[in-house]
Specification:
With about 350 residues, the protein is an alpha/beta fold. About 30% of the residues lie in helices and about 25% in strands. The protein has 14 helices and 16 strands. Strands 3, 5, 6, 7, 8, 15 and 16 form a seven-stranded mixed β-sheet that branches. It has a six-stranded parallel β-sheet with strand order 11-10-9-12-13-14, with helices on both faces. The longest helix is centred in the middle third of the chain and has 14 residues. The chain is globular and about 65 Å long. The chain binds NADP nicotinamide-adenine-dinucleotide phosphate (NAP). The site of NADP nicotinamide-adenine-dinucleotide phosphate has 26 residues, from helix 3, helix 6 and helix 7.
């Protein structure tokens, strides 16, 4: 895997300045000439958080600032953070959401009509103003719902494998492999050349799903026994890289599952944000514990992570080796039901809202 992303970072050169090159890499289409854009209304429908659910409201259309694009959204998808957005809003209503797909309608005449997918605050609206570095072109043939389901997971999981320094031929363990991120992490690891991908779920019925997206072995375990199962499955070698989406007590288990000189990347905290770890366990195996976090990452680094998808990951999306896993698609106006689906914990993959 190392060769791939050394190349990627060299080629990407940061952000998405060379949009055309990235567009070509993934076979995207859809650029219309300037002048074909319809007159813009002043207000738009948006989903507001802050009252315990997602409420449909009317707000002004954002005006893109320098460095931003204005995108007319076609679909948006829910993330774990949307389930708890009320708690961080302080009771003040604001436009919800982080992830979308749509079409550029402003901010850069050369990109008008380009289909893009990306991430921005206030994404759950008919229009979103987005840092131009935070979108990538939508590969040809990819439907709006699938495009909306991918960007956060793609750049987070690819970013996690990148910071881990993962290399082709290695073994990767994905905890909570059935989470929306984990399902993409399994596929990205495969595409980057992992020799073996192990993934976990607490639900026996989801093992088939993990195997369907590319896991060689789906482990149904959620505690200390997981490290034993991983060591047994790897002939006591342990795994080279762990992408951990659970946190809490799983962090120590992940360290115990790692090979000597292995890397554990903390990606998610589904099981809690606090962990007690055996520092002797870390030292004995010379394991490195790292983390990636969208919320604490500077905009330019998010731009670099999205640009780094161009050479390998976006072509894999374009040819179907990486596919969105969609739990359900709801009309934009049925957002409350979609949020209930996410909060209920039964979703398998992404919950998506469509606007067209
Ligand atoms: N680092 C970043 O930049 C970044 C970006 C986005 C999200 N995240 C974080 O990544 C994590 C995953 O997000 P997501 O949206 O992909 O999750 P998700 O789709 O909501 O994952 C839900 C699934 O995870 C499993 N799960 C839930 N709680 C668990 C627990 N306590 N222990 C073990 N498994 C559990 C369950 O599957 P089973 O039935 O198989 O147990 C559940 O169906 C979250 O913590 C999220 O905040 C991080």
């Amino acid at each position: 895997m190392r060769a791939n992303w050394t190349e990627e970072r060299g080629e990407a050169g940061g952000a998405i300045e060379n949009f055309a090159r990235i567009r070509d890499a993934c076979g995207a289409v859809g650029v219309r000439g300037p002048g074909s854009v319809e007159p813009m209304p002043n207000t738009m429908r948006a989903l507001l958080t802050g009252t315990g659910s997602l409420r449909l409201g009317t707000v002004p259309i954002p005006v893109p600032e320098p460095g931003q694009l204005l995108v007319r959204t076609a679909a948006v998808s829910l993330n774990n953070a949307d389930a708890s957005a009320d708690a961080s809003s302080g009771g003040v209503e604001q436009v919800a959401g982080y992830e979308f797909s749509g079409e550029v309608v402003g901010g850069d005449d050369t990109l008008l009509g380009q289909r893009v997918m990306g991430t921005a605050p206030a994404a759950f609206a008919e229009f979103v103003a987005v840092d131009r570095r935070h979108v990538v072109p939508v590969p040809e043939q990819l439907a709006p719902a699938a495009a909306a389901a991918l960007p956060v997971a793609l750049f987070t999981e690819h970013g996690a494998l990148t910071v881990a320094g993962a290399e082709p031929g290695q073994t990767v363990l994905v905890t909570a492999g059935s989470s929306a991120l984990g399902l993409i992490g399994i596929q990205v690891a495969r595409v980057l050349g992992a020799a073996r991908v192990l993934a976990t779920t607490r639900t026996a019925g989801k093992r088939a799903l993990l195997e369907r997206v590319g896991a060689d072995l789906a482990l149904c375990a959620d505690g200390a026994d997981l490290a034993d199962e991983v060591l047994e499955a790897t002939h006591s070698a342990g795994v080279d890289v762990v992408l951990d989406h659970i946190g809490g007590a799983m962090v120590d288990v992940a360290i115990g599952s790692a090979a000597p000189d292995g890397v554990v990347v903390s990606v998610g905290r589904l099981g809690g944000a606090e962990a007690t770890i055996d520092l002797f366990g870390l030292a004995r195996r010379r394991v490195r514990l790292l983390s990636v976090s969208y919320g604490f990452t500077p905009p330019e680094v998010i731009g670099d992570r999205l640009a780094a998808l161009a050479p390998v990951v976006l072509p894999a999306v374009a040819d179907g080796r990486i596919a969105a896993v969609i739990d359900s698609v709801h009309p934009f106006g049925d957002a409350a039901a979609a949020l209930d689906r996410l909060r209920g914990g039964a979703a398998e993959g992404k919950v998506v809202l469509t606007l067209t």
